[in-house]
Amino acid sequence: MESTLQLPARVEALSLSGLSAIPPEYVRPADERADLGDAFDLARDHTAPRIPVVDISPFLPLADDDKQQQRINSECVEAARAAAADWGVMHIAGHGIPADLMDRLRAAGAAFFALPIHAKEAYANDPAAGRLQGYGSRLATNASGQREWEDYLFHLLHPDALADHALWPAHPPDYVAATREFGRRIREVASALLAILSAGLLGPGRGDALEKELTRAGDDDLRLQLKINYYPRCPQPELAVGVEAHTDVSALSFILHNGVPGLQVRHAGRWVTARDEPGTIIVHVGDALEILSNGRYTSVLHRGLVNREAVRVSWVVFCEPPPDAVLLRPLPDLVTTDQPARFTPRTFKQHLDRKLFKKHQRQLLPPPSHNEQHQQEDTDGGGHHRHQIN
Ligand SMILES: O=C(O)CCC(=O)C(=O)O
Ligand SMILES: [Fe+2]
């Protein structure tokens, strides 16, 4: 039998070829296309509600317990709680990460993606062989599946001892130092935000509950995984998506970007395009936190649009519990006779497998309308896990 070994086509190569019509596998189904468009056009809708901006500076730098207690009544707890409940997403200001470190991170990722494609292929991943880390493009998961208009780089960022620095780009020279330092700082911000969101659920004095639950009382560390999404210019943005609608499986996801619009979040029955709020970091509530909060915090449904004019790059840090050691379940204090547990206990890995299984089952069935799928995802926390199925 003849075997055809093909390198996966990179979306960047397609975009650079100057084609005027995108290949059919990138064209989304008609009902999903109804509200797609050029991200720059959609970002001009100034009637859209604004994703909340929350200043978390009262919680940083992380202080000893006593100081933390005094600060815990801060109004930032209520602002973060409301944003996590109503939106499942917020822009955080006052995170304490220096602007020049964020610029270094962006410059390093941009310099990697500025390499010619053949140079980036040295870092190619191979999901079929179980090698998820590296440079990749998402392949259709079934014969009728659509592809997404993006390439990416994915690797574990923290804890440092688990990170395989040999897989991190050697070019530009600052990539490893800048990315590692950013990971260290995001780890601190994750603790602060978990403390704030814990207090928002359980009241002052209970700021440690979420992180304890996610790390087996500190025996394991949280994991941070970095995915740099590279969305090339697209000649027909009204037909394609960069990342299809999904919720993240993480506890929290942190997003930086290069200022080009594209992220949309589902809020009150409509898609809202995230605005550029300079200096802030976007934070998503993911499935793991929705489960621990027994549904009080919302794992936000979101997607990435593309545009004709400018390459969009985003840096997403998924903050996750260890895959097997922690049982994700609603915090016992949040389960009452009035409010029974809405989620069955599961490890992070089991959650991931279940979500993938559901997605594959959906793909085997004749497709329901995409709107129905989204509604279903809204309520059951289903959707797509991005960074490990690629
Ligand atoms: O590019 C973005 O802003 C979001 C990407 C995303 O949702 C993901 O990688 O999970
Ligand atoms: Fe996502």
TrEMBL record:
<dbReference type="GO" id="GO:0050589">
    <property type="term" value="F:leucocyanidin oxygenase activity"/>
</dbReference>
<dbReference type="InterPro" id="IPR050231">
    <property type="entry name" value="Iron_ascorbate_oxido_reductase"/>
</dbReference>
<keyword id="KW-0223">Dioxygenase</keyword>
<keyword id="KW-0284">Flavonoid biosynthesis</keyword>
<dbReference type="InterPro" id="IPR027443">
    <property type="entry name" value="IPNS-like_sf"/>
</dbReference>
<comment type="similarity">
    <text>Belongs to the iron/ascorbate-dependent oxidoreductase family.</text>
</comment>
<dbReference type="Pfam" id="PF14226">
    <property type="entry name" value="DIOX_N"/>
</dbReference>
<keyword id="KW-0847">Vitamin C</keyword>
<dbReference type="GO" id="GO:0009813">
    <property type="term" value="P:flavonoid biosynthetic process"/>
</dbReference>
<comment type="pathway">
    <text>Pigment biosynthesis; anthocyanin biosynthesis.</text>
</comment>
<dbReference type="GO" id="GO:0046872">
    <property type="term" value="F:metal ion binding"/>
</dbReference>
<feature type="compositionally biased region" description="Basic and acidic residues">
    <location>
        <begin position="371"/>
        <end position="383"/>
    </location>
</feature>
<dbReference type="Pfam" id="PF03171">
    <property type="entry name" value="2OG-FeII_Oxy"/>
</dbReference>
<keyword id="KW-0408">Iron</keyword>
<keyword id="KW-0560">Oxidoreductase</keyword>
<dbReference type="InterPro" id="IPR026992">
    <property type="entry name" value="DIOX_N"/>
</dbReference>
<dbReference type="InterPro" id="IPR005123">
    <property type="entry name" value="Oxoglu/Fe-dep_dioxygenase_dom"/>
</dbReference>
<protein>
    <recommendedName>
        <fullName>anthocyanidin synthase</fullName>
        <ecNumber>1.14.20.4</ecNumber>
    </recommendedName>
</protein>
<dbReference type="GO" id="GO:0031418">
    <property type="term" value="F:L-ascorbic acid binding"/>
</dbReference>
<dbReference type="InterPro" id="IPR044861">
    <property type="entry name" value="IPNS-like_FE2OG_OXY"/>
</dbReference>
<dbReference type="GO" id="GO:0046148">
    <property type="term" value="P:pigment biosynthetic process"/>
</dbReference>
<keyword id="KW-0479">Metal-binding</keyword>
<feature type="domain" description="Fe2OG dioxygenase">
    <location>
        <begin position="222"/>
        <end position="321"/>
    </location>
</feature>
<feature type="region of interest" description="Disordered">
    <location>
        <begin position="364"/>
        <end position="390"/>
    </location>
</feature>
